[in-house]
Every structure is written in structure tokens, then in C-alpha cells.
Write a structure and sequence with these properties.
Elements: H1 18-31, E1 36-38, H2 46-49, H3 58-62, H4 67-75, H5 96-105, H6 114-126, H7 138-149, H8 156-162, E2 165-169, E3 172-173, H9 179-187, E4 193-194, E5 197-198, H10 200-203, H11 210-221, H12 228-244, E6 249-254, H13 264-275, H14 281-302, E7 305-310, E8 312-313, H15 318-324, E9 332-333, H16 343-349, E10 357-361, H17 367-375, E11 381-383, H18 393-407, H19 425-445, H20 451-469
Parallel strand pairs: 1-2, 2-4, 3-5, 5-6, 6-7, 7-10, 10-11
Antiparallel strand pairs: 8-9
Helix pairs in contact: 1-19, 1-20, 6-19, 11-12, 17-18, 18-19, 19-20
């Protein structure tokens, strides 16, 4: 019995209007094969630390690490354990063929979603799988993929070169000693893998095991952290270490975003309450806002780009969080406010061109009302690309329509893939380049920009903006 084949039309995602489609195809052809710049993501650096490392089983590469995938399956009542996700007090399904079969039986759930587009690309373009993934083809495709990952040309380092990745940044906590990044350096391999400094676990005072992580931070920094000034000293030391390891950026995330400096006395009082386990939710929010101010100051001094992701209610499903821990697909967007909340930081540091502050948000309602006008004024502020739930064909279209007219293209940060699944990186860049090309083509046919400008803008959106924003040109 013949099984249906993958069909990935060359002109997918382009407007059906013939004039716009023709121009979109021309622009896409200009950028389709450019190197990939990946300044923000969550790929595990251990994939590249050993030249003989493999991607693992199909379940390990495409399902278990990727909450874009397993959140959809969970929404249909499929237990996370059955997908190989391990509870904190146990193990998930160990038979990855069973995990894969369950995934394949339900692959139809991804029809019309960006995850479906990405996975289709991965199967067909990366692994050369001709038949669609279904329950009937699951085990045959599993065998094909296992045979491929055993080949030298499918090892992570080889795929890094095949994907034409110029630089890939991971996201690493301040308490990470970066052993895999060091191993990559020691190996002599020339792939450019860089860490990104993330201090959330030690500046959010109510994060789990905060006190323990403060001790680890102090040990790594060579500082006994007994006060707010010694915390700042330890963070500065760790930032310097990350920068020496190639980092060009920091990252921050929170469910409260109100920036403002505390007096030294008030910051110290809150920190001492935290050390005693007596900190309140209000204390945590005020201290985080204070630490964002400190982070901006540090970025001006050490040159690290400052990223802030905001508008995601993390771990909304408390029972899942309690059983499986964080990053299990339970994020939910919520309403955000930036005009007032960012004003203290922007008034103090936003006029300084030495600071690059990249802002990401899930609240699309703020695009034209707040975020784009702010970025269209303050020299330090740049707009991160459409992120998480907005990282889709329609989400990117809405981003272009609502952000760029007011902020201007050159106040945006370019594209980043923000993925945990390494094989999906080229798929994500490909979709973004198609959407960008189609949007630019629409402006050409409307006479808003000419073709020469559109070509330059396409090159900027696909490649040059990310390099410039994250200072890879320095």
C-alpha cells in the first residue's frame, strides 16, 4: 500500500497574487542560502562538546526536549510520561519507539500550526524522508532516522556546517560553570557556539532553591554573598567569565516588569529578608526591577547586549509544574504594560547608545500602543522578533504590520529561532525568510519601497540585523 508523500511547495507561505508572489520568490532566492545567525536559543551545548556525539533517538531530538511539540499532545490528554518526559520523582517512558508511535498516531494535531511546518521541513529536507509521518509509517520512519543519525554526516557538528550556521548562542544560568562550552573550545573545533548569561535564578528571590543557588554563585565567583553589594560583585564576576567564553548577551525573564532603583538601604533590607526566607511577592517584584536597572548599568560597562522576555505566565499549570518542573509547555501569555514600567530604566539608561536593550513580548496588543513607539524613540531599545506563540506565519505577519511602520526596521533585532530542538533550526529560519520576503514584496507592489530597497531590507532581516544587534561584527 502506497503511503502519502510530503509535499512542500517551493512557493509556500507566499501571497497568491501573482505580482506579489513573483517578487517574494525573487527576494527569497536572494536570502534562502545565507548563513544562519542564531543569537538566542536553548540548544544543549553538550551536543557539540564531543565530535562523536549524536542527536540520539528521534524521540530525543524532536519530542522530549521541545515543549512546542509535547504541549499540543498534552492538550489532547496524552500524559507527559508517555512522551518520555520524566517526572521529578521518576522516569518517563523509556521505550522511545513507543513514544514515537504515540507521536506519529497524533501527528495530525499539528496540521496548520508552525510546529507542523517546521517538522515537515525537518523530515523531508533535513532527513530526506519521503513518506508522511502517520501511525502506519511511524516505525519505518523511525528506522530510517536511526540509520541516518548513525552516519558521520548527521552528527551535530556536521549538521552545524551543513545548516550553514555562522554562530549559535545557548542560554545558560549564572551558576553554570560552562563545562561543555569549555570542552568545545578545548577540542579545537571551529564551530562558533557561545553562551548567554541568564541570572534569573539568583535575582528572582522566590525561585525554587534560591538560597542554594546563591551559594553556588558565590563559590563560582569567589565571593561570599552576604549582602546586596556582594551579590552584584558576584554577578559582575560571572558576566566577565561568560564574556571571556564568548558571550555577547544576557537574558532576563519575569512575570512582573516594573523597573526602578531601590535605595541601597531598601535593597539590602529585601536581600536580608530573602536570606532568612522571609521575602514577600512584593519584595521579589521590587528587587527584580532594581536588578534590571543594575543589569542595564552592567551592560553599559561590559558591552553585553541585554535581552528581556516578558509577557509569559510561566508554569501556569501548577500540578504539572509540581510533578515535572519548569519548561513543560505551560506558558500562557498575559497582558503587559511597558510605557510606565520601563520608564525608570529608559530614562536613566535608554538614551545611552552603549546599551542595546532587546525587548520581547507575547502581548501583541502592546505592539502599536507601546512597544513600537518606545523603540522608535529610545536609542538603546530594540525589538526582539515575534516570540513563542507569535513565532508563526500569521504571528510574524502581525508583527511586521504593527511594529515596523512605527519603530522602523532598523530598530528591530533581526530573527532568532529560540528553539530547543537543534534539527529544527533551518526550518525556523526558512519560514521567517519566506514571511519576510512576502511582506517586503507586498510593500513593493504597493509602491511603498522599491526593489532595490526591498533587496537590502531582505538581507538585513535574514542576516545583517542579528549580527549587528548582537555585536557579532565587533
Amino acid at each position: 500500500m502506497a503511503h502519502p508523500k510530503w509535499v512542500l511547495p517551493w512557493d509556500r507561505c507566499f501571497d497568491p497574487d501573482p505580482a506579489q508572489k513573483r517578487i517574494a520568490q525573487e527576494l527569497y532566492a536572494l536570502v534562502a542560502d545565507l548563513p544562519l545567525v542564531c543569537p538566542h536559543g536553548h540548544v544543549d551545548p553538550r551536543l557539540f562538546a564531543d565530535e562523536n556525539a549524536t542527536l540520539g533517538t528521534p524521540a530525543e531530538m524532536l519530542i522530549i526536549p521541545d515543549h512546542y511539540v509535547f504541549r499540543m499532545l498534552y492538550s489532547q490528554g496524552i500524559p507527559l510520561e508517555a512522551l518520555g518526559i520524566a517526572p521529578l520523582d521518576g522516569t518517563g517512558e523509556q521505550d522511545h519507539r513507543k513514544v514515537w508511535q504515540l507521536f506519529a498516531d497524533n501527528f495530525y494535531l499539528f496540521r496548520g500550526t508552525p510546529t507542523g511546518l517546521w517538522l515537515s521541513y525537518v523530515f523531508n529536507e533535513v532527513f530526506g524522508i519521503e513518506e508522511k509521518l502517520t501511525g502506519a509509517t511511524a516505525q519505518c520512519i523511525y528506522d530510517q532516522m536511526m540509520a541516518k543519525v548513525a552516519l558521520p554526516e548527521f552528527r551535530p557538528r556536521a549538521l552545524f556546517k551543513r545548516f550553514n550556521i555562522e554562530v549559535l548562542c545557548t542560554t545558560d544560568y549564572a551558576t553554570d560553570p560552562l563545562p561543555y562550552h569549555q570542552a568545545i573550545r578545548d577540542s579545537g573545533w571551529d564551530g562558533d557556539i557561545r553562551p548567554t548569561f541568564r541570572a534569573d535564578d539568583v535575582i528572582h528571590l522566590l525561585r525554587p532553591r534560591w538560597r542554594e543557588k546563591i551559594d553556588v554563585l558565590g563559590h563560582l565567583a569567589g565571593v561570599e554573598i552576604t549582602s546586596c553589594p556582594t551579590l552584584i560583585q558576584a554577578l559582575e564576576n560571572r558576566r566577565a567569565f561568560f564574556k571571556a567564553m564568548g558571550a555577547t548577551a544576557t537574558d532576563h525573564d519575569g512575570t512582573s516588569l516594573s523597573t526602578g532603583e531601590l535605595s541601597p538601604q531598601e535593597a539590602e533590607r529585601i536581600f536580608q529578608r530573602a536570606l532568612k526566607g522571609e521575602v514577600t511577592v512584593e519584595d521579589e517584584a521590587r528587587f527584580f526591577g532594581h536588578m534590571l536597572m543594575e543589569s542595564a548599568r552592567m551592560s553599559i560597562e561590559d558591552g553585553l547586549v541585554m535581552q528581556v522576555h516578558f509577557g509569559s505566565f510561566r508554569n501556569h499549570n501548577q500540578p504539572v509544574y509540581d510533578r515535572f518542573g519548569p519548561d513543560r509547555g505551560c506558558d500562557i501569555p498575559f497582558q503587559a504594560e511597558f510605557t510606565h514600567n520601563l520608564r525608570p530604566l529608559l530614562n536613566k539608561y535608554g538614551n545611552d547608545p552603549r546599551l542595546t536593550f532587546v525587548l520581547f513580548t507575547l502581548d501583541e496588543s502592546t505592539y502599536t500602543r507601546e512597544v513600537a513607539p518606545l523603540a522608535g524613540h529610545y536609542p538603546a531599545l530594540k525589538l526582539g522578533p515575534a516570540w513563542w506563540f507569535n513565532d508563526s506565519l500569521n504571528g510574524m505577519i502581525r508583527y511586521h504590520q504593527r511594529m515596523i511602520e512605527t519603530a522602523g526596521l532598523y530598530n528591530t533585532a533581526g530573527f532568532n529561532d529560540d528553539t530547543r530542538s537543534f534539527p529544527s533550526i533551518p526550518a525556523r529560519h526558512d519560514l521567517a525568510r519566506r514571511v519576510d520576503s512576502n511582506w517586503l514584496a507586498g510593500m513593493v507592489v504597493r509602491g511603498i519601497v522599491d526593489m532595490d530597497d526591498a533587496r537590502e531590507m531582505a538581507l538585513d532581516m535574514a542576516y545583517r540585523l542579528a549580527r549587528r544587534t548582537y555585536r557579532f561584527n565587533d
